[in-house]
Design brief:
α2 (about 110-125) links the parallel β4 and β5 (about 135-140). The N and C termini lie far apart (about 40 Å). The longest helix is centred in the C-terminal third of the chain and has 17 residues, at about 290-305. This protein has helices at about 45-60, 110-125, 145, 170-180, 200-210, 240-255, 265-275, 290-305, 315-325, and strands at about 40-45, 75-80, 85-90, 100-105, 135-140, 215-220, 225-230, 280. α2 packs across α8. The chain has a single domain, classed as Zn peptidases (Aminopeptidase). About 30% of the residues lie in helices and about 15% in strands. It is built from nine helices and eight strands. The protein is of the alpha/beta class. The protein has an eight-stranded mixed beta sheet with strand order 1-2-3-5-4-6-8-7. The structure holds zinc ion (ZN). Zinc ion binds next to loops.
Length: about 325
């Protein structure tokens, strides 16, 4: 049940709803084993070329006039459960501290975020010279296995909801309990048998660890709002006051709302625990025909987020990040 408040120039906001209402899927959870990303990156190796072919065919199915791989150097780090490379690309100034990590297709049946992720990579490439004070890392297809199934799924190939599988402090006590009671064991929200058990989760942890982003944007659909997780007035004891103030300026600039977070979610892990302001852009629908219009609608808002500087990110803040350092994937 959304509570639309108002629409500004670029971003539709507001909702108290935090659960995705994507189309139904059929997987049931199964036992996991771990495949974590390696630090050895490959640039357009055979596996990426193969992925590009599959992705190009998929994009045609959606009737999008977009080339997923032309002129973009995707780097692979680790593989999905079914062996697809997990890809990202880096844009802007590699020395810039103002780094934004952008993730899309955590839930592949939401479809439209794929267009946004790929289009954004092209846009970054074309506007390289305008953005020399920033660095942007884009991973447009976090969960490839869900996209390449006959019927697109929210979960990964082992039936795990990647946005409930992060190793948050409340995972052990809350994640499976909440899944069984609150979500009545809905297979679409299965958090996995253990935290960080999935390669697609470990891939996102790897990107956060490697690039130490100042901000994270994760793109979903179809809830039609902008959600903020991160330092707030409630976390003043945990993070420096000035830093919290800067993070809240970002929330205010984007007119984002805070709708809460879940055990094992990215917002909980990165936003609440690591203190990296994490914005979830929920596009208005999963209809692939509307994806190009969504790009037009939201691109200036995304640019605004990319350019936003969190100047109060002090040494203390860096130390806070380190003290909440990332745990290795569960074996
Ligand atoms: Zn989603």
């Amino acid at each position: 049940m959304n509570r639309l408040i108002k629409m500004n120039l670029v971003l539709v906001i507001a909702s108290l709803v935090t659960l995705s209402s994507c189309s139904q899927a059929s997987e049931t959870p199964v036992e996991n084993s771990v495949q974590s990303p390696t630090s050895t990156a490959t640039t357009h190796g055979d596996d990426v070329v193969q992925l590009c072919e599959k992705l190009t065919a998929k994009v045609k199915e959606f009737k999008w006039k977009i080339e997923p791989c032309k002129d973009i150097t995707w780097v692979a780090s680790g593989k999905s459960v079914e062996g697809s490379p997990l890809i990202y690309a880096e844009f802007g100034n590699p020395q810039a501290k103002n780094t934004t990590l952008i993730l899309s297709m955590v839930h592949p049946d939401e479809i439209t975020p794929l267009f946004t992720g790929i289009q954004l990579a092209h846009w970054m490439k074309e506007h390289h010279s305008e953005l020399n004070e920033t660095r942007v890392v884009i991973a447009p297809l976090v969960n490839p296995d869900g996209l390449f199934r006959k019927k697109l799924t929210r979960m990964n190939a082992r039936g795990v909801d990647i946005n409930r599988n992060f190793m948050t402090k409340d995972w052990e006590t809350q994640a499976l309990k909440a899944w069984k009671t609150k979500y009545k064991s809905d297979p679409r929200r299965f958090p996995g048998s253990a935290p960080n058990s999935e390669p697609e989760t470990a891939f996102q942890e790897f990107l956060i660890e490697k690039f130490q982003p100042r901000k994270i944007l994760t793109i979903h659909a179809p809830l039609n709002h902008l959600d903020y997780d991160g330092p707030s007035a409630l976390s003043l004891a945990k993070f420096p006051r000035e830093y919290v103030r800067e993070c809240l300026k970002l929330r205010s600039r984007l007119k984002a709302v805070s709708t809460g977070f879940f055990p094992g979610s990215l917002g909980n892990r990165a936003g609440q625990e690591l203190g990296i302001p994490t914005i979830t852009l929920e596009l208005p629908s999963a209809d692939p025909r509307k994806a190009p219009a969504y790009w037009k609608k939201f691109q200036s808002g995304i640019r605004s987020m990319i350019e936003f500087r969190i100047d109060a990110a002090s040494l203390k803040e860096q130390n806070d990040h380190k003290s909440a350092s990332l745990s290795p994937p569960v074996k």
